[in-house]
């Protein structure tokens, strides 16, 4: 672990970045001790600008933060503490050393995806939803063409399932448009057909401002994430980027968010939390399990999660979920604001 104080870190960030022979940063992450931090000689606004193009910066907070620490927490990728803190920059963990090991192991395994994620999350904080989704899609597309994803893809069997049933069921009753993800045999895995059907249903809702919208999933899981059978099937990542931005379920949902409720249960993985997090109200059953697994594939969340989650829980806690792939239960999700209600 490289643990440094603010002035030392700022000097290091402003120095020419050392790179390894493969072109990656020689230090993919740095940790910042916020407990004994002093901002003497440090312009916090300069610090924030310096970290924008830096590797991952992990804050460590052993005690209640001073005013200086609170300012610097905003510039970190995420801050770890064993003490519960209300700030969205902080993730409470049982053991800081264990949490650091989890973070740094994930960064070490997929440094390109991890550093890309950290930089993207900082950028998106200043962007409207549509522009932020374009930025996410562009990052996702270049990672699809990268070696980290290629390595993951090479270890998978090339299987494609054949289905004929509609992936989404849509009904209209008494002013409520009910949209049900309906691939229960595949745990409602989010594929191209489901995306298209969901976009069409949400477009219909956008065309009638009197409608309320409810989104749910059939079977034991709301949605177990992107359909892995379709990962890597696009031959041209640039064309995939154009399609992803033209037919974004997240953007379509954002346009009717104020009158939409999403009902989550079981596994809500990848797209299974990224898309419904755009809804104005998210209700989760007590068995809901939320996870962002994309980094382990050499990718970042690509169904809108770097946009929807950051607007609910902040970029710092989003970074923690995306970097570690940790499962989040409904209690913490409610406390963070990722969901709005828990039902039995």
From TrEMBL:
Superkingdom of source: Bacteria
InterPro entries hit by this protein: ClpP/crotonase-like_dom_sf, Enoyl-CoA_hydra/iso
Record-linked Pfam families: ECH_1
GO BP term (any one): fatty acid beta-oxidation
SUPFAM superfamilies according to UniProt: ClpP/crotonase
Keywords: Lipid metabolism, Lyase
GO molecular function: lyase activity
PANTHER family in the record: (7AS)-7A-METHYL-1,5-DIOXO-2,3,5,6,7,7A-HEXAHYDRO-1H-INDENE-CARBOXYL-COA HYDROLASE, ENOYL-COA HYDRATASE-RELATED
Protein family (similarity comment): Belongs to the enoyl-CoA hydratase/isomerase family.
Protein name: Enoyl-CoA hydratase
């Amino acid at each position: 672990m490289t643990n440094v104080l603010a002035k030392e870190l700022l000097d290091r960030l402003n120095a020419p970045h050392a790179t390894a022979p493969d072109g990656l940063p020689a230090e993919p992450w740095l940790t910042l001790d916020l407990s004994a931090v002093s901002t003497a000689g440090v312009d916090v606004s300069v610090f924030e600008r310096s970290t924008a193009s830096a590797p991952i910066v992990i804050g460590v907070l052993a005690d209640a933060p001073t005013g200086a620490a609170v300012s610097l927490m905003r510039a970190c990728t995420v801050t770890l503490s064993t003490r519960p803190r209300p700030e969205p920059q902080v993730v409470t963990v049982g053991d800081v050393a264990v949490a650091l090991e989890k973070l740094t192991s994930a960064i070490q395994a997929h440094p390109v995806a991890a550093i890309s994620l950290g930089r993207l999350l900082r950028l998106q904080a200043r962007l409207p939803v549509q522009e932020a989704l374009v930025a996410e899609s562009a990052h996702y597309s270049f990672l699809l063409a990268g070696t980290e994803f290629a390595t993951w893809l090479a270890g998978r069997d090339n299987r494609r399932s054949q289905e004929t049933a509609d992936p989404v069921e849509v009904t209209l009753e008494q002013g409520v448009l009910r949209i049900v993800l309906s691939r229960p045999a595949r745990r409602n895995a989010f594929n191209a057909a489901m995306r298209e059907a969901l976009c069409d249903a949400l477009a219909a809702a956008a065309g009638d401002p009197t409608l309320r919208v409810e989104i749910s999933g059939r079977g034991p899981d709301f949605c177990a994430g992107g359909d892995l059978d379709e990962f890597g099937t696009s031959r041209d990542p640039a064309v995939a980027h154009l399609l992803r931005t033209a037919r974004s379920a997240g953007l379509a949902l954002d346009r009717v968010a104020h009158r939409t409720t999403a009902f989550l249960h079981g596994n809500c993985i990848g797209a299974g939390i990224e898309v419904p997090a755009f809804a104005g109200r998210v209700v989760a059953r007590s068995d809901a399990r939320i996870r962002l697994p994309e980094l382990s594939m050499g990718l970042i969340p690509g169904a809108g999660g770097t946009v929807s989650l950051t607007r609910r829980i902040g970029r710092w806690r989003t970074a923690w979920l995306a970097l570690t792939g940790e499962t989040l239960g409904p209690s913490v999700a409610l406390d963070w604001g990722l969901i709005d209600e828990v039902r039995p």
